[in-house]
Hints:
This protein is mainly alpha-helical. It has 2 helices and 3 strands. A 3-stranded antiparallel β-sheet has the order 1-2-3, with helices on one face.
Amino acid sequence: MKPVAYLLAILLGLLGIVFVGGSQGSPLRIVVGIVFFAAAGALVWLARMQPAQTTHTIVQKIDLSGDVNLQDLTCKSCGASLSRKSISVAAGAVLVNCEFCGASYQLEEEPKW
Ligand SMILES: [Zn+2]
């Protein structure tokens, strides 16, 4: 989504240059060119606003999948099924503390999720 927004911004900027550059003193074309520049600026601004929202969504997804897939989780050290008290969520990361073998590690996102 982001590269598309920047590409559109560049295109709008180029259109703005064409209109202002080829205005030949016509005020209407200068105004249209300025509108294109403003649209290009707004697109870049929107594209820069996006990363914060994306990070937020990813954190929420990790929390959710940690709860949903809890019954299928097994310790990667000893293979025992892990119960809810073996799992803790800290700062968006799922931490496993196996109650059977004492293994402690951070759960990484797996393809089956
Ligand atoms: Zn274990």
